[in-house]
């Protein structure tokens, strides 16, 4: 029925029609709630008043404080429209839940012709939103249940996975021309919005004053899922030769999702029985209704082919604790996947730590990377009496950088204050807490100087009550009374092995995917935009992405589905795809595997951190990964494209000595080894000079249909951990000036998104 509905609908509205159609379908584990829809309809005018108040009193000040260029930001009109939100079904969980909580899943749909206008007076910029669509499953938790009125201590609301979101903008092109926002796109904005709606982010409404709001807003994870992504067998061969006459093999890789955490495996070239042997670890906050989702793809130069999918209910994994099985892939005629899944519980004492360290072999090795023995949860509260920084009697713009080993995270910026309040939560996977330290530095974002630092050996937590420290810490190299208030807790990750009879057999419950293959989001390498009206698909850790991984088999890898922004499009009248992704990680590199010996932790962390700063508009410069200078022209006499690589500037550093950069080029879509061009390696510099010339044999009409793929990479030496991507740029050759040529500086980005065209 759904397929018939899609076929007869207009392409641009088919997704909306499908969502409306599905709202009429009765699922056995959900209940209709027409009484609730009638109630929402009656309350809608008052809900709209609350939304307008939220926009003006909460969102508007937050946007103004997020970036100096947005200090004159304001909403001139907020009208959500007359069409109320609709609840298509309600599911109440009665099993596997705490007795002091009530868990509801609401299947919601909102299709509103709203009118939200905004203005940035400083730049005479006006933009707005004409319509919003949102479809997804919203979880509502009532907890704790108490013996006094109102019987419920607090209400928490969030999405288990990103909702389908579509926003029809007006004047977005003008908005994205503003300094500090020019690194964004409409898809990245949607990703940021979606991420704020998905766990671990949540909206918490206290109903009684005794409830600890911080604990509800940032709860302890229910567990950690360790995913051994081992191998596959009997996959489909998707590659073809001689225009499809000869069947070949595939270049398989996997996308693994748990909530908004997204991992990508390495690519195995030309193999229908690939062996990955990679390990990832993911936090699980809400296991009722949450699944492990896996999709396999065949890597191709343009659009990656689908090889199968799998969804596993995490309740089953928690019950079994350990699953080591072959799973049959869905939505494809053949293929199976070998996984080993471990459910790790969190223990607040160190009694089992030595056994855990021995099990993961962390008691003997000296590395700081590998399987995790513990989880560090850090609640960053506030700071007091921070120094003024470089300028006397001026308030700094403080932010906090935290790191454990190679893993680094960063707080939001608080502007013009020496008494910042952050109230943010961070988590770190810990390999061996007996040897590792938590390093914290407070910095002034405006002047790029340190305001104080702190080093805490994690071994201190092992001797503390419940392995928790909650206090104000005196900052070193700071003012005499400068302090930072934090709560840090260490939890040991323990695998509780179940006692089973010898003949016990179990197969984890595999759920069927809710998205058909025709509607699937396929990773697309081409940077040409795909209009939603054409039925085209777009791509996706992440998320925040977690873990550390093997050395890539290829130099560029496809984006995870649901994790990459679309290419450029007409942003002035953009209508973003309903399948917009929640995570805006855009590097075509695999997620590092924590079981690897030749990993790339620094490169992926550095690039993703810089990209995150760009998306939040907090990077001072407009080229956070640096720039590269190229001369490009086509010689009609030689019938060749000539590319001169001059130099790079302001590259990121892989070590204290800088980087060892070189430049690699392809003329897409040709990514064969014979089509690759490379410069020499320039040692220990962030501003290398190459001045090397390269050519590609191609005619002028042909080259104008091609794209030059330029990547700046760090060499690092044989088997070095510091190999990796420093930045990329994609230059479309569709220019009338190609015969004359040009010399230009190009901004490097994490994957070359936003192809740069010369006109």
UniProtKB/TrEMBL annotation:
<dbReference type="GO" id="GO:0006869">
    <property type="term" value="P:lipid transport"/>
</dbReference>
<dbReference type="GO" id="GO:0008429">
    <property type="term" value="F:phosphatidylethanolamine binding"/>
</dbReference>
<dbReference type="InterPro" id="IPR037733">
    <property type="entry name" value="Ext_Synaptotagmin_C2A"/>
</dbReference>
<keyword id="KW-0445">Lipid transport</keyword>
<comment type="subunit">
    <text>Homodimer. Interacts with ESYT1 and ESYT3. Interacts with FGFR1 that has been activated by FGF1 binding. Interacts with the AP-2 complex; identified in a complex with the AP-2 complex and FGFR1.</text>
</comment>
<feature type="region of interest" description="Disordered">
    <location>
        <begin position="500"/>
        <end position="599"/>
    </location>
</feature>
<dbReference type="GO" id="GO:0006897">
    <property type="term" value="P:endocytosis"/>
</dbReference>
<keyword id="KW-0254">Endocytosis</keyword>
<dbReference type="InterPro" id="IPR035892">
    <property type="entry name" value="C2_domain_sf"/>
</dbReference>
<dbReference type="GO" id="GO:0031210">
    <property type="term" value="F:phosphatidylcholine binding"/>
</dbReference>
<protein>
    <recommendedName>
        <fullName>Extended synaptotagmin-2</fullName>
    </recommendedName>
</protein>
<keyword id="KW-0812">Transmembrane</keyword>
<feature type="domain" description="C2">
    <location>
        <begin position="207"/>
        <end position="327"/>
    </location>
</feature>
<keyword id="KW-0446">Lipid-binding</keyword>
<feature type="domain" description="C2">
    <location>
        <begin position="352"/>
        <end position="477"/>
    </location>
</feature>
<keyword id="KW-0472">Membrane</keyword>
<feature type="compositionally biased region" description="Basic and acidic residues">
    <location>
        <begin position="548"/>
        <end position="560"/>
    </location>
</feature>
<dbReference type="InterPro" id="IPR037749">
    <property type="entry name" value="Ext_Synaptotagmin_C2B"/>
</dbReference>
<dbReference type="InterPro" id="IPR051634">
    <property type="entry name" value="Extended_Synaptotagmin"/>
</dbReference>
<keyword id="KW-0677">Repeat</keyword>
<dbReference type="InterPro" id="IPR037752">
    <property type="entry name" value="C2C_KIAA1228"/>
</dbReference>
<feature type="compositionally biased region" description="Polar residues">
    <location>
        <begin position="526"/>
        <end position="542"/>
    </location>
</feature>
<dbReference type="InterPro" id="IPR039010">
    <property type="entry name" value="Synaptotagmin_SMP"/>
</dbReference>
<dbReference type="GO" id="GO:0005789">
    <property type="term" value="C:endoplasmic reticulum membrane"/>
</dbReference>
<keyword id="KW-1133">Transmembrane helix</keyword>
<feature type="domain" description="C2">
    <location>
        <begin position="624"/>
        <end position="746"/>
    </location>
</feature>
<dbReference type="Pfam" id="PF00168">
    <property type="entry name" value="C2"/>
</dbReference>
<dbReference type="GO" id="GO:0005886">
    <property type="term" value="C:plasma membrane"/>
</dbReference>
<dbReference type="InterPro" id="IPR031468">
    <property type="entry name" value="SMP_LBD"/>
</dbReference>
<dbReference type="InterPro" id="IPR000008">
    <property type="entry name" value="C2_dom"/>
</dbReference>
<dbReference type="GO" id="GO:0005509">
    <property type="term" value="F:calcium ion binding"/>
</dbReference>
<feature type="domain" description="SMP-LTD">
    <location>
        <begin position="29"/>
        <end position="208"/>
    </location>
</feature>
<comment type="function">
    <text>Tethers the endoplasmic reticulum to the cell membrane and promotes the formation of appositions between the endoplasmic reticulum and the cell membrane. Binds glycerophospholipids in a barrel-like domain and may play a role in cellular lipid transport. Plays a role in FGF signaling via its role in the rapid internalization of FGFR1 that has been activated by FGF1 binding; this occurs most likely via the AP-2 complex. Promotes the localization of SACM1L at endoplasmic reticulum-plasma membrane contact sites (EPCS).</text>
</comment>
<dbReference type="Pfam" id="PF17047">
    <property type="entry name" value="SMP_LBD"/>
</dbReference>
<keyword id="KW-1003">Cell membrane</keyword>
<keyword id="KW-0479">Metal-binding</keyword>
<keyword id="KW-0256">Endoplasmic reticulum</keyword>
<dbReference type="GO" id="GO:0035091">
    <property type="term" value="F:phosphatidylinositol binding"/>
</dbReference>
<keyword id="KW-0813">Transport</keyword>
<keyword id="KW-0106">Calcium</keyword>
<dbReference type="GO" id="GO:0061817">
    <property type="term" value="P:endoplasmic reticulum-plasma membrane tethering"/>
</dbReference>
<dbReference type="GO" id="GO:0005544">
    <property type="term" value="F:calcium-dependent phospholipid binding"/>
</dbReference>
């Amino acid at each position: 029925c759904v397929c018939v509905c899609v076929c007869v609908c207009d392409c641009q509205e088919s997704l909306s029609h499908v969502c409306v159609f599905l709202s009429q379908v009765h699922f056995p584990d959900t209940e209709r709630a027409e009484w609730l829809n009638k109630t929402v309809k009656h309350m809608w005018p008052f809900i709209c008043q609350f939304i307008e108040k939220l926009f003006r009193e909460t969102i508007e000040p937050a946007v103004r404080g997020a970036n100096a260029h947005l200090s004159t930001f304001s909403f001139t009109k907020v009208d959500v429209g007359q069409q109320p939100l609709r609840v298509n079904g309600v599911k109440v969980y009665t099993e596997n839940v705490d007795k002091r909580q009530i868990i509801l899943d609401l299947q919601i749909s909102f299709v509103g012709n709203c009118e939200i206008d905004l203005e940035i007076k400083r730049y005479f910029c006006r933009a707005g939103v004409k319509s919003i669509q949102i479809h997804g499953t919203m979880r509502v938790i009532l907890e704790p249940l108490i013996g006094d009125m109102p019987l419920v201590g607090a209400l928490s609301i969030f999405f288990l996975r990103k909702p389908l979101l579509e926003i029809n903008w007006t004047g977005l092109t003008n908005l994205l021309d503003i300094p500090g926002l020019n690194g964004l796109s409409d898809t990245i904005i949607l990703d940021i919005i979606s991420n704020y709606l998905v766990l671990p982010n949540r909206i918490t409404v206290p109903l009684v004053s005794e409830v600890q709001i911080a604990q509800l807003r940032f709860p302890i994870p229910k567990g950690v899922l360790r995913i051994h992504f081992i191998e596959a067998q009997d996959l489909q061969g998707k590659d073809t030769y001689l225009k499809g006459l000869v069947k070949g093999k595939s270049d398989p890789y996997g996308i693994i999702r748990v909530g908004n955490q997204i991992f990508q495996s390495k690519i195995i070239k030309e193999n229908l029985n690939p062996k990955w042997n990679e390990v990832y670890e993911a936090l699980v906050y809400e296991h009722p209704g949450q699944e492990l989702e896996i999709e396999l793809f065949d890597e191709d130069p343009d659009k990656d082919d689908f090889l199968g999918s799998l969804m596993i209910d995490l309740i089953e994994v928690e019950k079994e604790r350990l699953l080591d099985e072959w799973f049959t892939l869905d939505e494809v005629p053949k293929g199976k996947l070998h996984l080993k899944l471990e459910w790790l519980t969190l223990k607040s004492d160190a009694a089992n730590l030595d056994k855990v360290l021995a099990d993961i072999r962390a008691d003997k090795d000296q590395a700081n990377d590998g399987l995790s023995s513990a989880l560090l949860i850090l609640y960053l509260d506030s700071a007091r009496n921070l120094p003024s920084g470089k300028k006397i009697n001026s308030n700094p713009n403080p932010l906090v950088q935290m790191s454990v080993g190679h893993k680094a995270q960063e707080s939001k910026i608080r502007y013009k204050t020496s008494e910042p309040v952050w109230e943010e939560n961070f988590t770190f996977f810990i390999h061996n807490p007996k040897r590792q330290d938590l390093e914290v530095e407070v910095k002034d974002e405006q002047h790029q100087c340190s305001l104080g630092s702190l080093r805490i050996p994690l071994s201190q937590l092992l001797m503390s009550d419940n392995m928790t420290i909650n206090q104000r810490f005196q900052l070193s190299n700071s003012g005499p009374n400068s302090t930072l208030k934090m709560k840090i807790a260490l939890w040991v990750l323990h695998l509780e092995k179940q006692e089973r009879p010898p003949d016990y057999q179990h197969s984890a419950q595999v759920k069927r995917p809710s998205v058909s293959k025709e509607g699937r989001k396929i990773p697309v390498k081409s940077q040409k935009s795909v209009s939603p009206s054409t039925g085209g698909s777009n791509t996706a850790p992440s998320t925040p992405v977690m873990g550390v991984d093997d050395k890539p088999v290829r130099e560029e890898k496809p984006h995870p589905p649901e994790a990459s922004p679309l290419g450029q499009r007409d942003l002035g009248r953009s209508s973003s795809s309903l399948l917009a992704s929640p995570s805006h990680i855009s590097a075509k590199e695999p997620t590092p595997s924590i079981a690897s010996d030749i990993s790339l932790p620094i490169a992926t962390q550095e690039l993703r951190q810089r990209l995150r700063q760009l998306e939040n508009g907090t990077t001072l410069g407009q080229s956070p990964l640096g720039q590269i200078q190229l001369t490009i022209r086509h010689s009609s006499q030689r019938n060749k494209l000539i590319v001169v690589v001059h130099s790079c500037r302001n590259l990121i550093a892989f070590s204290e000595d800088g980087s060892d950069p070189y430049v690699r080029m392809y003329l897409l879509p040709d990514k064969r080894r014979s089509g690759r061009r490379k410069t020499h390696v320039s040692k220990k510099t962030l501003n290398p000079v190459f001045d090397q010339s390269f050519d590609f044999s191609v005619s002028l009409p042909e080259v104008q249909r091609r794209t030059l793929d330029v990547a700046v990479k760090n060499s690092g030496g044989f088997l070095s951990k510091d190999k990796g991507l420093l930045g990329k740029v994609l230059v479309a050759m569709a220019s009338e000036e190609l015969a004359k040529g040009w010399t230009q500086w190009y901004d490097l980005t994490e994957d070359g998104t936003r192809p740069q065209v010369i006109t």
